[in-house]
Write a structure and sequence with these properties.
Elements lengths: L1 H9 L3 H6 L8 E14 L1 H7 L2 H21 L3 E6 L2 E7 L6 H28 L6 E18 L2 E7 L1 H16 L3 E4 H6 L5 E6 L8 E5 L3
Parallel strand pairs: 4-6
Antiparallel strand pairs: 1-3, 1-4, 2-3, 4-5, 6-8, 7-8
Helix pairs in contact: 4-5
Length: 214
């Protein structure tokens, strides 16, 4: 039961680590991932308009649409923060990178398709539509414990995580559901369409962004 609950709340990667005693502050390892970040657009405004008791149901609908495809394609959800989802697709060997990128993009495209189906249902039920953006990036991140001595959290940190989050924000500005980094596009086996270079907050230099040709 303890292992099940740890996996349920922390994920299938962090759960076994905690159960195995990897609970020292600052303990972690650098892992190569495809990072996947999703965020619900306009949720602050939506939460002000909806009755409080309906907000959880809306979030659950959204999380089901996003998280199901991530897990089905071999990804792990690391965090749900408000209306955001941080997930990763670990890369065990460099030669596996194109395949992992393909699985991550397949998951993102299926998540967007799920959102369209969800909005059709919401329309029939006279509920507001939901829109999200997804950022995809390949990079190294530190995966481990941060916090204080009596309250720790497993998380991923590093420039790659920040860049992925900025790409997700860019998706909303460009009106694109999915934005991929140049590193992702280089590794992916199918051509992606460039949507130009952009200055991103707290990211040095202009960053070229790519979108799948859906």
């Amino acid at each position: 039961m303890t292992r099940f609950l740890l996996d349920l709340y922390l994920g299938t990667n962090a759960g076994p680590r905690v159960y195995g005693g990897q609970i020292k502050r600052g303990e972690g390892k650098i892992i190569n991932f495809v990072l996947f970040i999703s965020d619900l657009k306009g949720f602050t405004k939506l939460s002000e308009e909806l009755p409080l008791e309906h907000i959880t149901a809306v979030l659950n609908d959204y999380f089901e649409a996003i998280i199901g495809p991530v897990q089905a394609h071999g990804g792990e959800v690391l965090k749900m923060i408000g209306d955001g989802v941080l997930a990763s697709f670990p890369i065990d060997k460099p030669e596996e990178t194109p395949d992992v990128c393909e699985r991550a993009l397949d998951a993102a495209e299926l998540a967007i398709a799920n959102m369209r189906l969800l909005n059709r249902r919401h329309s029939r039920e006279d509920k507001p539509p939901l829109n999200c953006g997804i950022g995809l990036h390949v990079g190294d991140a530190l995966y481990g414990n941060v916090g204080v001595h009596d309250r720790l959290d497993f998380t991923v940190i590093g420039p790659a995580v920040n860049l992925c989050a900025r790409l997700e924000s860019l998706a909303g500005h460009l009106g694109e559901p999915i934005i991929c980094s140049a590193d992702f596009a280089t590794q992916y086996s199918v051509d992606l369409k460039s949507v130009g270079k952009h200055e991103l907050k707290n990211v040095q230099g202009a960053v070229e962004a790519f979108v799948p040709q859906m």
